[in-house]
Design brief:
By secondary structure, this protein is mainly α. The protein is built from 17 helices and two strands. It has one domain: Peroxidase, domain 2 (Orthogonal Bundle). The protein binds protoporphyrin IX containing FE and 2-acetamido-2-deoxy-beta-D-glucopyranose (3 copies). It catalyses: 2 a phenolic donor + H2O2 = 2 a phenolic radical donor + 2 H2O.
Length: about 400
């Protein structure tokens, strides 16, 4: 396809630019961002990117306490690191393609809450209340896969590669496997020594949020409406559980009616997948999973056991990543209320239309938004540390 070729050329160009930059030893994030925007300056829509790049520069200059991320940070300490992550994700994916969306969602939940510091991976223990245990984290998956990748890396270069870098690099690989774009990433993130369960509860967007709430929450993290709309394109892929949409299908806002913004054919389809079955919400006599000792199992997680979920499936099989999601939104076929709300705001709808009609524009902008997400408030040395177990904060070191 012509567009794929164009895209790979752009990516190639970008990598060249980056490696050139890299020759000035301490490349910094800010100049890299501007070179990225100018690479794409032929796009008629790029003026706002320039703007956000300079805002970004300002922010970065304000926080020069710690070292910037670097291209190929592990080039000496663990030169195989990125290759190991890549091939392990590919292997896991060939056994279970569902890991790609799981890892992608995981990076969003990590980076959105207090930055990309692998705090989302921490288990609750010894009085640490984990982000995992905050309600919006319900049904997050992929932790085992991160553990597998981490143990591969620990086998090769013990104590070197941070969980935070593993997470963003594994998510990048996942995006690619799901049919999305490649994007270059700097490395050198360090892992947090705290988890932010309360922040996660209140700050992560909810599936019931309207467009105002959604854009506010993303804006508070420095993402404009355009970037927000492109990030939500991640919902092209993966699973969704009925409990996130039952109220839309049967009792929207307590009306005992469905959400009027759902296309009626689509409503029938969704209702056939998600029956209004009250037993979904009552505890089962024989729990299929043993609850972890530290957390009491909630009614919601019991519901999950009986709610196997359905594919978001905007893409059909193997038809790429992105465009169909936006086209579906324009037809009232958004699955989550929050997805459909992207067509309810004037600016957000403009971007939904743009991405629905231009797949390469979407791929480009999704790539940029993912890079920005992956660099959101990172911890770098001397802050943070490299955890040897992604689920635990080692007390020594
Ligand atoms: C308004 C913002 C968002 C809301 C309300 C939201 C909510 C949700 C919900 C409720 C699910 C279904 C989970 C399940 O049933 O197990 C989901 C899945 C998913 N989300 Fe989001 N999300 C948002 C933004 C994002 C962003 C920015 C990304 C990534 C860049 C993302 C990536 C994913 C992926 C890949 C899945 C599928 C997970 C899987 O298959 O296991 N989401 N999201
Ligand atoms: C690794 O990268 C640093 C900084 O970019 C550079 O100074 C060094 O020469 C590189 N080492 C190797 C082995 O390529
Ligand atoms: C509701 O769900 C339960 C448990 O999955 C199932 O046994 C039952 O047949 C369902 N009832 C209806 C009306 O679908
Ligand atoms: C994967 C994971 O740890 N999910 C947790 C999310 O939070 C709920 C509590 O709200 C836990 O029960 C889940 O185990």
């Amino acid at each position: 396809m012509d567009f794929t070729r164009k895209l790979s050329f752009l990516v190639f160009l970008l990598c060249v630019l980056i490696s050139l930059k890299n020759q000035n030893a301490e490349t910094n994030k800010a100049s890299w961002f501007s070179s990225y925007s100018s690479t794409f300056s032929q796009s008629p829509l790029s003026s706002r990117h320039m703007f956000s790049a300079s805002k970004m520069e300002q922010k970065i200059q304000e926080s020069q306490l710690s070292r910037p991320l670097r291209y190929d940070y592990y080039n000496e300490s663990c030169p195989q690191a990125e290759q190991i992550i890549k091939s392990t994700v590919q292997e896991l994916y060939s056994l279970k393609p569902s890991i790609a969306p799981q890892l992608l969602r995981l990076v969003f939940h990590d980076c959105f809450i207090e930055g990309c510091d692998a705090s989302v991976l921490l288990d609750s223990y010894d009085g640490i209340e984990s982000e995992k245990d905050s309600p919006p984290n319900e049904s997050l998956k992929g932790f085992d896969h991160i553990d597998i990748i981490k143990s591969e890396l620990e086998g090769t270069c013990p104590g070197v590669v941070s969980c935070a870098d593993i997470l963003v690099l594994a998510a990048r690989e996942s995006v690619l496997l799901a049919g999305g774009p490649f994007y270059p990433l700097y490395t050198g993130r360090r892992d947090s020594t705290v988890s932010y369960s309360e922040v996660a509860t209140f700050d992560l967007p909810s599936p019931q949020d309207d467009v105002v709430k959604i854009t506010e929450k993303f804006a508070s993290r420095g993402f404009d409406e355009r970037e927000t709309v492109s990030l939500l394109g991640a919902h092209s892929t993966g699973m969704i559980h009925c409990k996130f949409i039952l109220n839309r299908l049967y009792n929207f806002g307590g009306t005992k009616r469905p959400d009027p913004s759902i296309n009626s054919e689509f409503l029938t389809l969704l209702r056939s997948q998600c029956k209004n079955n009250r037993t979904l919400f009552t505890p089962s006599a024989s729990p299929a999973q043993t609850p972890s000792p530290s957390s009491s199992i909630s009614v919601l997680s019991l519901a999950l056991i009986q709610d196997p979920g359905m594919k978001m499936d905007y893409e059909g099989s193997g038809s790429g990543f992105g465009m169909l999601y936006y086209r579906s939104l324009l037809q009232g076929r958004g699955i989550l209320y929050a997805d459909q709300q992207l067509t309810a705001g004037e600016d957000t709808e403009t971007w939904v239309r743009a991405y629905a009609s231009d797949a390469s524009l979407f791929q480009k902008e999704f790539a940029m938004a993912m890079m920005k997400l992956s660099n959101h408030r990172v911890l770098t040395a001397p802050l943070g540390r490299v955890r040897s177990d992604c689920r635990r904060i080692d007390l020594e070191s």
